């Protein structure tokens, strides 16, 4: 068993000697720094930490973190991560994927790693575009996205990563964005969750899909449309002047004005990270009419996949001796006696 | 038809070398059990044998229908047996559907034993017979022994007061009793087995024993002037030891467990259901106490990727599939080659392309195994020649994978996976262990004398170190992008790609240096004709070459296990023969590899009917090289399209 005692590291300890090769100004830089800032706060040990990724801009991530790293193939990181966790559950596994890698080519694997509840952190960098292949629209691109492969605008409806995650049975769903100062707290919550923790991180692709998240992520003015969720706290945004209430007749959420900070009078609902129905409603809120729900949306742990596998393996092995000679001779056997005819 | 005419029907042959019997009935008639017990009795009588089961493809086939027929074929004799037989000598048909489905396979002059009790109008209709074949003369070219097995069974179990349905379920034991009489077998082991099996229901045990005895007595006492004769086949002398029967799927599973033990590693098996490979997943799922973790993944790709993940984390990763699934795994194999991680990939080949013939055998994935990946992606490929050989091959695949840090493909096929043969149970201690050493500290020094890590430094075999995550101080990154030859950091400079491509090739080529030189299975090391095979063609080639040599023909058998890279001496060996014939169940894939690698004039003999080669087909092909040799009649052989039992042949 690996020693899991928290150890002391600094941001520098998590940097590799490799030159970071993202475009200047890419949101990935901010996410990398946020992760490298978070890891020391978690007491993480580089030798027990593994970053696993697929293919795409985001998936270069492992090369820049001084830990164990495995840059795999397009869309399949969840399957590699599952094998790693089953082989050595003591490893602290972070998976890095993108909207194309995780929801297009790898949608199937993302579904199963979440439903199985393998104990790892999944960071899906959502920039709503294929960056590394030079700008084609992605499964999260908004309708009408102009791209080299959709010169007349995309016509298909985008997938909602957090709604997908909840739909396939994820027990932890959170959101953040690249330059948010709250991102480390979101990552810490994901790490604290035992099981598959899904974090959608909005990431600005400054080359192919610049500033598409500015309505809520812009350093100035965006804050008005950020709804930062805190368990047990009222769903307030716009500096406490607005809130979200539950319309019980229509069974839907509504934006309400909060006068003089009296959110109770305005009927603002409280966040409950264990309320799955509320989580569904929060991730489905149409942005514009509603704010963007950020932070920990849902967090209700269940036993992990690998713990169940290990327990079952242990139970099946209980009291049994792994005697290969006996195994080979199992079933109906017969003996040929030595004789003069034995000349072969 | 000279060859077929020369074969004498079993009933009149005084002592044939070998006999092929096919048990066929409704899937509810217990034919697999009957076949299995007849097999054990055959083994106890000291005969050599090979068997092939056939289950309906339909999961719950309606009773009495053509697609509900289940059959079991056994070839046994006083000589070495390597195949399930060219064609049955005896067909035991428990109902009209079983007769119809299997009749075409039966040798002319062969014996049909049929249960008239099941040849009702209703069952004849279900089998799409317009008239009763037992009465309309359509079976004239065979000997027919038809009597009411159902009624005789009912009669024999009367004292036990069973219900009608339960009483009729003893039919298979009655039939087995008759078969035991026909081949002069001891009933006692079967009686012991029935007592043990039904220890909790002694009445059922007694009824089945009574049925078995009654069937036996029927053969003994009935005045059967007809075709039924007792036949005694002498034992085939085998080396002393403990034996069992084993299928290829069992042998692969056990071999993987043994291989992991010899490597001193826990095993991780990632699989996805596919015919005919699933049996390996099923076997391994029950062997947890041997440090085996099985994982049924969401698809073929996830199955191999999870196995690579487990190898990365320090276990022996294994995955298994058949052609279509192997195609899906291709990209991940490339990653295992690129990151140089050990992995065993078992391919139980079936007919292709696409879905092809899921339940039938073929060897048509050789190109896929050897050449079927993007980029220069060399990977060792080994092929099992028989169910029992699959055990050793699985161990060999594990050894190469961990010693050379490479994925290895083990090829079997639908025939090997399902067929069974006697297996002398090996002593695990007789295999040389190949324990794995993980890197625990830095393995190089820089110019200033400081220790540093080179994850892609190579040992004398060209293999890189295996570094488990969790090891202090050895953090590093690997991936599918071309890398620096030492540090493994991303590096796609021209020099690096050239060096790394060369290193990967040299490493896999070097596997040939660590394998035994190619031997000659049968015959001389030089001569007029070498019959070169790989995989499950071993059995029919072996028998055909044996028979040809008995006729005095100068022919040798060379059977290759290491398909890629080829054994280092194979080229020189083949150059000692005037002719090279390569029989394979594809359109000539190994022939291409031999020509490419060795510049020899290898000639193909191909077959893609989903059925294995018949011995007679190969004898004929061999004979063509020896025209004018006395006693070599040659002649045409009609391929038996139903050589192995299969309901789908008539009902695809």
**Strand portion of chain A, in percent?**
15-25%
Number of DSSP E strands of chain B: 22
- State the shape of chain A: globular
Going across the major beta sheet of chain B, what is the strand order?
9-8-10-11-13-12-20
Mean pLDDT of chain A: 95
User: Helicity of chain A, in percent?
Assistant: 25-40%
Total of helices of chain A = 11
Distance from N terminus to C terminus of chain A (CA atoms, Å) equals 50 Å
Report on this model:
Chain A is of the alpha/beta class. Chain A has helices at residues 27-42, 77-87, 99-105, 107-116, 161-167, 183-192, 214-217, 263-266, 276-284, 305-317, 324-328; strands spanning 49-53, 68-71, 92-98, 120-126, 172-177, 196-202, 226-229, 236-237, 242-247, 252-257, 292-299, 333-336. An eight-stranded mixed β-sheet of chain A has the order 2-1-3-4-6-5-11-7, with helices on both faces. Chain A has a three-stranded antiparallel β-sheet with strand order 8-9-10, with no helix packed on it. In chain A, helix 1 packs across helix 6 (183-192) and helix 3 (99-105) packs across helix 4. Chain A is globular and about 100 Å long. The model of chain A has no long low-confidence stretch (mean pLDDT 95). Chain B is α/β, with parallel strands linked by helices. Helix content of chain B is 34%, strand content 19%. In chain B, the strands form five sheets. In chain B, strands 9-8-10-11-13-12-20 form a seven-stranded mixed β-sheet, sandwiched between helices. At the A-B interface, strand 2, helix 2, helix 4, helix 10 and helix 11 of A face helix 2, strand 7, helix 10, helix 12 and helix 13 of B.
């Amino acid at each position: 068993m690996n020693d899991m005692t928290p150890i002391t590291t600094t941001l520098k300890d998590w940097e590799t000697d490799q030159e970071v090769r993202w475009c200047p100004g890419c949101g990935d830089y901010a996410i990398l720094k946020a992760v490298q800032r978070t890891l020391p706060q978690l007491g993480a040990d580089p030798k027990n930490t593994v970053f696993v990724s697929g293919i795409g801009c985001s998936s270069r991530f492992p090369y820049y973190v001084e830990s164990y790293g495995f840059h795999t193939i397009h869309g399949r990181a969840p399957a590699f991560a599952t094998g790693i966790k089953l082989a050595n559950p003591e490893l602290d596994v972070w998976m890095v994927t993108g909207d194309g890698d995780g929801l297009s080519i790898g949608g199937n694997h993302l579904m199963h790693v979440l439903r199985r509840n393998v104990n790892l952190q999944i960071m899906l960098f959502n920039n709503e575009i294929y960056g590394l292949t030079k700008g084609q629209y992605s499964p999260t691109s908004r309708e009408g996205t102009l791209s080299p492969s959709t010169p007349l605008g995309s016509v298909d409806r985008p997938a909602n990563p957090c709604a997908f995650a909840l739909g396939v049975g994820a027990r932890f769903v959170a959101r953040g964005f690249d330059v948010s100062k709250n991102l480390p707290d979101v990552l810490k919550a994901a790490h604290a969750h035992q099981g598959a923790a899904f974090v959608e991180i909005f990431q600005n692709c400054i080359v192919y899909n610049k500033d598409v998240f500015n309505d809520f992520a812009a350093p100035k003015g965006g804050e008005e449309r950020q709804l930062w969720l805190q368990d047990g706290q009222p769903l307030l945004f716009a500096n406490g002047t607005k809130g979200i209430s539950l319309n019980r007749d229509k069974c839907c959420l509504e934006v309400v004005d909060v006068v003089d900070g009296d959110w109770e009078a305005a009927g603002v609902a409280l966040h409950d990270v264990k309320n799955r129905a509320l989580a569904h409603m929060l991730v489905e809120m149409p942005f514009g009419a509603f704010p963007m729900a950020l932070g920990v949306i849902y967090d209700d742990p269940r036993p992990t996949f690998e713990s169940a596998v290990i327990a079952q393996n242990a139970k099946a092995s209980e009291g049994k001796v792994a005697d290969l000679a006996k195994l080979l001779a199992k079933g109906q056997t017969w003996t040929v006696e030595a004789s003069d005819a034995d000349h072969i | 038809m000279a060859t077929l005419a020369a074969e004498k029907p079993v009933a009149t042959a005084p002592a044939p070398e070998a006999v092929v019997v096919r048990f066929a009935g409704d899937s509810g008639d217990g034919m697999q059990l009957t076949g299995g017990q007849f097999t054990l009795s055959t083994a106890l009588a000291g005969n050599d044998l090979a068997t092939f089961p056939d289950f309906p493809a339909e999961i719950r086939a309606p009773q009495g229908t053509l697609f509900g027929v289940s059959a079991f074929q056994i070839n046994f004799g006083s000589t070495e047996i390597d195949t399930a037989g060219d064609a049955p000598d005896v067909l035991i048909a428990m109902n009209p559907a079983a007769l119809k489905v299997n009749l075409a396979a039966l040798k002319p002059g062969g014996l049909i034993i049929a249960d008239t009790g099941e040849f009702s109008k209703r069952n004849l209709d279900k089998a799409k017979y317009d008239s009763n074949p037992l009465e309309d003369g359509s079976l004239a070219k065979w000997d027919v022994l038809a009597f009411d097995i159902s009624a005789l069974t009912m009669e024999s179990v009367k004292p036990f007061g069973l219900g009608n349905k339960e009483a009729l379920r003893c039919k298979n034991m009655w039939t087995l009793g008759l078969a035991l009489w026909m081949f002069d077998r001891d009933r006692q082991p079967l009686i012991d087995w029935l007592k043990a099996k039904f220890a909790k229901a002694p009445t059922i045990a007694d009824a089945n024993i009574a049925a078995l005895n009654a069937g036996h007595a029927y053969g003994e006492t009935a005045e059967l002037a007809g075709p039924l004769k007792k036949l005694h086949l002498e034992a085939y002398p085998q080396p002393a030891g403990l034996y069992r029967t084993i299928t290829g799927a069992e042998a692969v599973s056990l071999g993987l467990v043994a291989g992991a033990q010899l490597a001193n590693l826990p095993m991780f098996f990632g699989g996805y259901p596919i015919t005919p490979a699933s049996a390996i997943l099923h076997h391994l799922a029950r062997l947890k106490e041997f440090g085996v973790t099985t994982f049924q993944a969401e698809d073929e790709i996830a199955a191999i990727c999870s196995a690579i993940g487990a190898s990365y984390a320090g276990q022996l990763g294994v995955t298994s599939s058949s052609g279509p699934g192997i195609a899906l795994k291709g990209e991940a194999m490339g990653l295992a080659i690129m990151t140089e991680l050990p992995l065993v990939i078992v391919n139980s080949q079936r007919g292709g392309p696409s879905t092809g013939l899921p339940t039938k055998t073929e060897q048509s994935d050789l190109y896929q195994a050897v050449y079927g990946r993007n980029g220069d992606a060399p990977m060792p490929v080994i092929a099992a020649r028989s169910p029992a050989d699959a055990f050793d091959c699985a161990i060999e695949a594990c050894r190469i994978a961990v010693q050379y840090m490479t994925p290895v493909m083990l090829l079997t096929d639908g025939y090997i996976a399902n067929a069974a043969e006697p297996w002398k149970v090996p002593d695990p201690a007789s295999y040389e262990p190949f324990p794995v050493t993980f890197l625990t500290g830095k393995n190089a020094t820089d110019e200033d004398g400081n220790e540093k890590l080179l994850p892609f430094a190579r040992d004398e075999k060209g293999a890189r170190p295996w570094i488990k995550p969790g090891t202090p101080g050895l953090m590093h990154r690997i991936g599918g992008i071309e890398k620096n030859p030492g540090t493994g950091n991303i590096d796609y400079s021209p020099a690096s790609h050239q060096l790394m491509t060369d290193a990967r090739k040299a490493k896999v080529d070097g596997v040939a240096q660590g394998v035994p030189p190619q031997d000659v299975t049968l015959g001389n090391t030089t001569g007029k004709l070498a019959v070169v095979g790989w995989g499950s063609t071993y059995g029919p080639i072996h028998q055909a070459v044996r028979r040809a040599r008995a006729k005095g023909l100068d022919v040798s058998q060379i059977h290759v296990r290491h398909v890629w890279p080829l054994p280092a001496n194979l080229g020189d060996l083949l150059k000692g023969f005037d002719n090279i014939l390569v029989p394979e169940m594809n359109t000539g894939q190994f022939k291409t590899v031999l020509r490419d690698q060795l510049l020899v004039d290898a000639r193909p003999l191909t077959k893609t009917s989903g059925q294995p080669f018949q011995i007679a087909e190969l004898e004929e092909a061999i004979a063509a090289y020896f025209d004018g040799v006395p006693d070599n009649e040659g002649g045409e052989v009609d391929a038996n399209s139903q050589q192995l039992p299969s309901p789908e042949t008539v009902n695809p």
